[in-house]
Design brief:
Blueprint lengths: L2 E6 L6 H10 L5 E7 L10 H19 L2 E7 L3 H8 L3 E6 L2 H17 L4 E6 L9 H9 L10 H12 L1
Parallel strand pairs: 1-2, 1-4, 2-3, 4-5
C-alpha cells in the first residue's frame, strides 16, 4: 500500500489545499493529512476545529477516488510523523518560487534524517496559486469576501470567528 503524508497547519483549509489533496489521491492508496500543532503560528482555529474542517472537506474527495484519507494531528518532526504513519512519500504543495526555496531546504534536511522517505511536490493549479491561509484570514478579518478561496463551510466558520 502506498502511503503519503500531506502536512500543514490548514488554518483554515482552502481550495488550494483541497486541490492538492484531490491530486495526491491519484498517487497513493492512503493519504494521511498531518495537521500540525504549531503553537508558534498562533492558529485562528483550534486543533479540533482544523481537524474537523479537513475531515469534512477532504474525506469525501478520498471516497470519490478510492483513496483512504486519514487526518492525523502531529507535533513532532515531520520525518518522525511520516515514520509514525508509515508514509513513504511526503507530499508538499507549491504555489510560487518562494515556496520552492523553503521546501528545497526542508527536503535536504529530511533526506539527511531519513533518506528512505521521498518528497513529491505538486504545483497548485493556476487558479489556486495566490491562495494562502494567512491572506484568507486577513481578508476575512477585514470583512472581505473569501468565498472564492474556501468552501462554504469554511467561509461560515471564518465569518463566525470574526463576527463574534
Amino acid at each position: 500500500m502506498r502511503v503519503g503524508l500531506y502536512p500543514g497547519t490548514f488554518d483554515p483549509v482552502t481550495h488550494g489545499h483541497i486541490d492538492i489533496i484531490r491530486r495526491a489521491c491519484s498517487l497513493v492508496d492512503r493519504l494521511v493529512i498531518g495537521v500540525a500543532i504549531n503553537r508558534d503560528k498562533g492558529p485562528l482555529f483550534t486543533l479540533e476545529e482544523r481537524v474537523a474542517m479537513i475531515e469534512a472537506e477532504a474525506i469525501p474527495n478520498g471516497a470519490a477516488t478510492g483513496c483512504e484519507i486519514v487526518v492525523h494531528p502531529f507535533e513532532n518532526l515531520l520525518i518522525d510523523c511520516a515514520r509514525d504513519v508509515g508514509a513513504g512519500i511526503i507530499i508538499r504543495g507549491l504555489r510560487a518560487v518562494a515556496d520552492f526555496e523553503y521546501e528545497y531546504q526542508m527536503v535536504g534536511m529530511n533526506r539527511v534524517l531519513d533518506n528512505s522517505i521521498e518528497t513529491v511536490f505538486l504545483m497548485a493549479e493556476a487558479q489556486h496559486q495566490a491562495i494562502a491561509s494567512k491572506l484568507v484570514k486577513e481578508i476575512a478579518r477585514l470583512g472581505g469576501d473569501v468565498s472564492k478561496f474556501v468552501t462554504p463551510a469554511v467561509n461560515t466558520a471564518l465569518r463566525a470567528r470574526f463576527d463574534a
